[in-house]
Amino acid sequence: MTKLNIQLACQNLKQGNIIAYPTEAVWGLGCDPNNEDAVNKILSLKDRPVHKGLILIGGCIDQFEPILRQLSTEQRDTLSSSWPGHITWLVPDPDRLIPRWIKGSHQSVAIRVSGHSVVQELCAAFAGPIVSTSANETGEEEIRSRLILEGKFVDKIACIVDGELGQAAKPSQMRDLISGKLIR
Questions:
Q1: Model pTM score
Q2: Alpha carbon distance 97, 80 (integer Å)
Q3: 74-127 tens-digit pLDDT
Q4: What's the topology of domain 3-176?
Q5: How far apart are CA 116 and CA 119, in angstroms?
Q6: Is there a contact between 110 and 174 (Cβ–Cβ < 8 Å)?
């Protein structure tokens, strides 16, 4: 992976484009979470309804600080002890800091601090979290091959960030921070 590739990806994110990038288990699609048009492009590309919500992925816990301020010390410790890692947490958003096009019909937001070096570099260069959703249409298998990714999405995304997938066998586990309940 080159810094040039990361810079190109960040330019595309800032321009409202969709990028693809490797994660711990599958290829992901991403965009600027504050750009509603970009989020709608991803939802359309995946044929995913907005009410389901999307995951935000960051490179470090500090990138989620605004939403974490309202959490108890125990809740913050739970997040800190699992990140960086392969767990996505549903975190309450009572102050409505996260846009509805990210949360969908939920009162919480799905967030994760990745342990994947490419994601960490990408989010550091972008200076914040990005949307993270598997690079597949809703209901189809997640993509684990760059060749398949290119074949399906090359004309629908702005760039592919170089890198290898991590060693995880499946997408991140998802848990509710309040109840601890396993969602997936």
A1: 0.94
A2: 21
A3: 999 999 999 999 999 999 998 899 999 999 999 999 999 999 999 999 999 999
A4: DHBP synthase (3.90.870)
A5: 5
A6: yes
